[in-house]
Design brief:
By secondary structure, the chain is mainly alpha-helical. The chain is built from eight helices and four strands. A two-stranded antiparallel sheet has the order 1-2. A two-stranded parallel sheet has the order 3-4. The longest helix is centred in the N-terminal third of the chain and has 39 residues. The N and C termini lie far apart (about 75 Å).
């Protein structure tokens, strides 16, 4: 009995040190990734408007929009100037804990995985469990412009989800919640070629 207890203690001690070392390595990698992303993040003003992709807005002689060619972008909106009903609706539908989390919701991701598996899909197919910050990370495509990275950012894979975590943490460190929400409301795709709530409303 004493010998068995000694073996169990050794096994537990070994598992503790393995877990500790794995957690330490993961933490170092995570911190390095966050710092790397923070150093790459531009001023917030550069992230609010994505018209550089070639869309054209046509104005009449009274400076009123009458047509778009390519992707549609409205004027720049800031989250603190939004109609309160729209602001609250976005938070309620997309991320109820937006103002209290640090960029990632582990509970939301695990809940989404559970729902997806229950409905017969892959763990990351369907519900994503992403916070608004993670959605902004996906919209910004981890600040990479090459085609392969953009395709990767659109796929719901474990590797892309893992990349989202340090990027979302970096966004939360570098910008305020209102800045992050401003990027979202200006650049989220809302169908029919409209990017952002202003373009969608028009």
């Amino acid at each position: 009995n004493l010998a068995m207890n000694a073996i169990i203690r050794k096994i537990l001690k070994y598992l503790f040190w393995v877990s500790f070392n794995v957690a330490l390595i993961v933490s170092v990698i995570l911190i390095f990734s966050v710092v790397n992303y923070v150093n790459k993040l531009p001023p917030i003003a550069e992230l609010l408007d994505d018209r550089k992709r070639g869309s054209v807005t046509l104005l009449d002689q009274h400076d009123s929009v009458f047509a778009w060619r390519g992707n549609q972008f409205g004027g720049i909106l800031e989250s603190n100037s939004l109609n309160r009903v729209l602001h609250d609706a976005i938070i309620s539908v997309e991320d109820r804990t937006f103002y209290s989390h640090f960029g990632v919701s582990i509970r939301g991701i695990l809940g989404a995985i559970r729902i997806n598996l229950k409905e017969g899909r892959g763990p990351f197919s369907g519900h994503g469990g992403s916070t608004i910050t993670q959605q902004v990370a996906k919209i910004l495509c981890l600040l990479q412009g090459d085609t392969n990275t953009q395709k990767h950012c659109r796929r719901s894979t474990i590797s892309r989800k893992l990349l989202e975590i340090p990027f979302a943490l970096a966004l939360e460190y570098a910008y305020s919640k209102e800045d992050i929400l401003s990027i979202y409301i200006n650049r989220v795709y809302l169908g029919s070629g409209a990017f952002g709530f202003e373009a969608a409303s028009e």
